[in-house]
UniProtKB/TrEMBL annotation:
Signal peptide: 1-22
Entry protein name: M48 family metalloprotease
Gene3D superfamilies recorded: Metalloproteases ('zincins'), catalytic domain
EC annotation from Swiss-Prot or TrEMBL: 3.4.24.-
Naturally occurring in which organism (per UniProt): Hymenobacter canadensis
């Protein structure tokens, strides 16, 4: 298989075969995704393994072990409420795990294809309440669930290179992708869709469903002071974007909910 795929005509043939069952982007304006859901799972696991290795070597990966069991119990509680909203398309197909990168100076989060979510401790500590955390996690879950990450990687790196990754034939490029995933530039349409689905997901939970807007409002305030969070620099958030989240939340009548923040405050203390 590895030797065959090195031949350009076979790469083209496989791409054409994938194209026969290609998944069009939901907004119709960002191209066609030529990889399957199974490809998302395979590539996502490869990228997640490399991401784990990269941050573990730096001593920044908060491992899922006995020492950090309580932190992950609290974080998983939020993630699972979003995942179990009944609105996540690939809830049962993707593995859906979340890991913390210990870096209080970075306010960022990102998702691999196939549902592996990474969140920096700096982002968690930046947020004011659990609804905001749920909103940001919902945004990242949407990127994976709506397959935005796979589509953007295909556009950025090309079909042939992505195919080589899927068969394990390009480990050096895998390192580059894993390292740069947190700075991946999504289209305006994909960012808007992720925002909208974050609201939809949270509508079926206990959280105020405009939680993501709360983060962006605070982030924009800091941006005016010349110190924008990393998440804001890679996910442009104009005032119209905040308004769109709040408008969607008003339509669903789920904007004014309040939840206890005791678990969230404990999470911030122990990470």
């Amino acid at each position: 298989m590895l030797h065959l795929l090195r031949k350009p005509w076979l790469l083209f043939s496989l791409a054409a075969t994938l194209g026969g069952t290609a998944a069009c982007s939901s907004d119709g304006g960002d191209g066609v995704l030529l990889f399957s859901v199974e490809d998302d799972k395979t590539l996502g696991q490869q990228v997640a393994d490399q991401t784990d290795s990269t941050y573990r070597a730096k001593g920044q990966l908060l491992e899922r072990n006995t020492r950090n069991a309580r932190a992950y119990q609290l974080l998983d509680g939020v993630v699972n409420k979003v995942l179990n909203s009944g609105e996540v398309r690939y809830r049962n197909e993707f593995p859906w795990d979340v890991k913390i990168i210990k870096d209080d100076a970075v306010q960022n989060a990102f998702a691999t294809p196939g549902g592996h979510i990474y969140v920096y401790s700096g982002l968690i500590k930046f947020l004011d309440n659990e609804s905001e955390l749920a909103g940001i996690l919902g945004h990242e879950i949407a990127h994976a669930d709506r397959r935005h990450t796979s589509k953007q990687l295909q556009q950025q790196y090309g079909i042939s290179l992505m195919l080589s990754l899927l068969v394990g034939d390009n480990p050096n490029q895998l390192v580059q992708i894993a390292t740069g995933l947190g700075q991946l530039k999504f289209s305006r349409n994909d960012e808007t869709e992720a925002d909208q689905y974050s609201v939809v997901y949270l509508n079926k939970t206990q959280y105020a469903c405009d939680g993501a807007a709360g983060f962006f409002i605070k982030a924009e305030s800091q941006n005016q002071n010349g110190n924008p969070p990393a998440f804001l620099s890679t996910h442009p958030a104009p005032a119209t974007r905040i308004q769109e989240i709040q408008t969607k939340a008003d339509q669903l009548n789920c904007r004014t909910r309040t939840v206890s923040n005791s678990n969230f405050e404990e999470l911030k203390r122990i990470i």
